[in-house]
Amino acid sequence: MKKTILCIGAGYVGGPTMAVMADNCPDYKVIVVDMNEERINAWNSDELPIYEPGLDEVVKRARNRNLFFSTDIIAGIKEASIIFVSVNTPTKTFGAGAGKAADLQFWEKTARDIIEHSKHDKIVVEKSTLPVRTAEAMRRILQSNTKNLNFDIISNPEFMAEGTAVTDLQTPDRVLIGALETVSGQKAMQRIKDIYLHWVPEEKIKTTNLWSSELSKLVSNAMLAQRISSVNSISALCEKTDANILEVSAAMGMDSRIGAKFLRAGIGFGGSCFKKDILNLVYLCEFYGLPEVAAYWEQVVKINEYQATRFVSKILNNMFNSVASKKIAIFGFAFKADTGDTRESPAITVSKMLLEERATLAIHDPEALKNAKLDLADETGDISYHCDPYKAAKGAHAIVVLTDWKQFQGYDYERIFKSMEKPAFIFDGRNILDHKKLFKLGFNVFPLGQREYSHLTEIEK
Ligand code: NAD
Ligand code: UDX
Q1: CB 420 within 8 A of CB 402
Q2: Which among 46, 179, 290, 427 could bridge 189 via Cys, Cβ 3.0 to 4.6 Å?
Q3: Catalytic residue from among 7, 25, 273, 285
Q4: Which of 104, 105, 138 lies closest to 124, judged by CA?
Q5: Residues contacting ligand 1 via CB (< 6 Å)
Q6: How many CB atoms lie within 10 A of CB 399?
Q7: CA-based nearest residue to 58, from 14, 108, 20
Q8: Catalytic: 273?
Q9: How far is the CA of 459 from the centre of ligand 2 (A)?
Q10: Pocket test for ligand 1, best of 6, 8, 87 (most atoms within 8 A of CB)
């Protein structure tokens, strides 16, 4: 094999990214390491640590051929000449910048491991999402080595989304590679480009300076999230004016300058990236003395919180201002469809608020029940978890849809309605069900930003 690539961090990004890379680059040996032994064991087993459509096949094709998962970080560092770092960069929870700035302790630990165990020059690639100018700090740490080794830092942020990771990685909109404008930096950039050229057309590979690359990643996420908050804010106005958010989104999206994607109104965005990356952007703007810019972006997060709270108020208002001791079936706990990931899922916020109101929760999700149990482990209250939607809904007063799983549309709602307490409610927080049909079955249906269908009289409401 021509070269060995190491990836430190075998999470939602490191695992799929390297699996697709190994699959497309049989002339490279790709080693993925993590300090989490359980995770590595799972990557080496038939039950991968994450659910991602199409990933099993890719991993099976490449694993133990030119793709290896290991906990031996030191051996990996010694062997590889290119090191991708894909460790987590969560929001800082302590000290200066707590609640906004990125916590770079995992990144820094990796840099120190690299210095300690390197015996020859290396290219270190930032795959994690990092604040702009992180590479400067990393370069200083790495160049502080006393072994006279050269480390080139490349920024190569990842744009895949969960649930579509494999197709996003196989056919990306773009691959972004940022490097210093030095001879050594440009050479290192070409070596990373050569890897991607195995399967990505050259015109989709965008090269920039290091800082543009770091900042582009944060801003891409902020722009996507901003679209969702914009459309969610308008969903509230639709409810006041009898406009329909689906029609408004479709009409807006037909303008080719706006585009149709990321205009789905719902209970708000979740996932490990959007909130953390916007808060990071806000922190950076404050740090660089730009309070107006910081306030502008912070509003995207505020609207997201408002939307979840607004949805819970809608549930309470329509269920006679009380859900205490009422069974509520939660359909969907993952932060989006086709993933088992629940990080920052709006389902966590909504469930906690309903538990505070003393509701009994029956949670159903096709892939995320294990994570849901962990997320709600500290909550007091009556919570049950169900693979079977019919068991979750049996005897419930309401169904609350919190994830856009496609299979929710195919359930037998006639059977579900018959098994529920009456009046039976559906609150469709993702606008994915056929509301008219449900109404005809007897449900009182409350979507977001669209007309509600209720059998209750004004007095009953
Ligand atoms: P993750 O938490 O799933 O995985 C990170 C892994 O790194 C963990 O398994 C952890 O054990 C390991 N790790 C941490 N420190 C380590 C160390 N010093 N040595 C060895 N292993 C170490 O995180 P993720 O979702 O894969 O995200 C990783 C980065 O990619 C973040 O910066 C994130 O913002 C970015 N990103 C995430 C997504 C996404 O959809 N999840 C998409 C694009 C970019
Ligand atoms: C996001 C970015 O899309 C991806 O490019 C980046 O690399 C990582 O962060 P991810 O968080 O995995 O990906 O999923 P995404 O599809 O962006 O969805 C994020 C959240 O927004 C989900 O909760 C989803 O349900 C919500 N969403 C998305 C909406 O509410 N409406 C939409 O129109 C689109």
Answers
A1: no
A2: 179
A3: 273
A4: 138
A5: 8-14, 34-36, 39, 73, 86-89, 106, 109-110, 128-129, 158, 160, 162, 272-273
A6: 29
A7: 20
A8: yes
A9: 40
A10: 87
CATH architecture assignment, domain 3-200? 3-Layer(aba) Sandwich (3.40)
Query: How far apart, in whole angstroms, are the C-alpha atoms of residue 399 and residue 416?
Result: 10
pLDDT at 461 over 80: no
Indicate the burial class of 182 (C-beta count within 10 angstroms; 0-12, 13-18, 19 or more): exposed
Structure tokens at 321: 């201002």
| CA–CA separation, 187 and 450 (whole Å) | 55
Nearest listed ligand to the Cα of residue 269 = 2
Q: How far is the CA of 90 from the centre of ligand 1 (A)?
A: 9
**Cα separation of 135 and 128, whole Å?**
11
Cα–Cα distance, 242 to 127 (Å, whole number)? 45
User: What is the secondary structure of 267-325 as a DSSP string?
Assistant: S---SSSHHHHHHHHHHHHHHTT-HHHHHHHHHHHHHHHHHHHHHHHHHHHHTTT--TT
Whether the per-residue pLDDT at 458 is higher than 80: the answer is: no
Please tell me whether residue 57 adopts helix, strand or coil conformation.
helix
Q: Is the peptide bond before 423 cis (omega within 30 degrees of 0)?
A: yes
How would residue 460 be classed by pLDDT, with cut points 50, 70 and 90?
A: low
Q: Which tens digits make up the pLDDT trace of 243-268?
A: 999 999 999 999 999 999 999 999 99
The ligand that comes nearest to the alpha carbon of residue 337 is 2
Atom of ligand 2 nearest to the CA of 272: 11
Instruction: Output the pTM of the full model.
Output: 0.97
269 lines ligand 2 (CB under 6 A): yes
Where do the structural domains in the chain lie, given as residue ranges? 3-200, 210-461
**Which of 17, 52, 224, 267 to mutate for ligand 2's pocket (most ligand atoms within 8 Å of CB)?**
224
- Indicate if the pLDDT at residue 35 is higher than 60: yes
CA distance 33 to 127: 14
CATH 3.40.50.12780 applies to domain 210-461:
no
> Ligand 2: distance of its center to the CA of 449 in Å?
20
Tell me if 3-200 shares its fold with 210-461.
Answer: yes
